[in-house]
Amino acid sequence: MIKNLLLLLLLGFSLQAAAYQSDTSAYQIQRLKINGLLAERSERFGQYDQSLDARTGIFGFQTKRDIKNSNEILRQIVLNDNNIFKELKILMDYKDQEVKEVISTANTTNSRIQAYMLSIKKLQDQNQFLKKEAQQAEKGKTLYVYAIIFLILALGGTVFVLLKKMKKI
């Protein structure tokens, strides 16, 4: 019975580990996606710095096209930041979900442990009760054995006395 219980418990933990593994891989994929967006943002900032230094106008001044190019790069950075915020929100949702699952698993495990402890306590109480019954039954057996021995001795004594009386007659 204990082997079956342990097997069931290990099977439950392995299924939970597989579910946790898939959640963790989704979390890791999301992190990689955000890291890629951050790398893209850093690259765009480098481009923006270069565009601010670009002076293609007469006498080394910036032209409207240089300023438009810088503004376009800045707009791309803002759009990328918006994507980063969206992906971070998804990542935080994954993290919240993981926390909820950990809490749920902890509660489930705690309730299972409480149930197992209650079952063990019931079995221990039943075991003690059965031991007491067995001791009482054993005492009853010895009482019956003594009674039977006493009756056999009494019967034997009576037969002996009767046989002696019959020999005298």
Structure explained in plain terms:
This protein has 169 residues and is an all-alpha fold. The chain has helices spanning 2-53, 64-168.
User: Helix amount, in percent?
Assistant: over 70%
> How many β-strands, per DSSP?
0
Low-confidence stretches: none
Count of alpha/pi helices: 2
Largest sheet: none
How far is it from the N-terminal to the C-terminal residue, by CA? 72 Å
What structural class do helix, strand and pairing data support?
mainly alpha
Radius of gyration: 44 Å
Mean pLDDT reading? 84
Q: Beta-strand level of the residues, as a percent range?
A: under 5%
- Order of SSEs, N→C? HH
**Given the C-alpha coordinates, what overall shape results?**
rod-shaped
Core attributes:
single chain, 169 residues, mainly alpha, 2 helices, rod-shaped
Describe the structure concisely for a colleague.
The chain is mostly helical and 169 residues long. Helices cover 93% and strands 0% of the residues. The protein has helices at 2-53, 64-168.
Produce the secondary structure layout.
Layout (H helix, E strand, L loop, with lengths): L1 H52 L10 H105 L1
Helix pairs in contact: 1-2
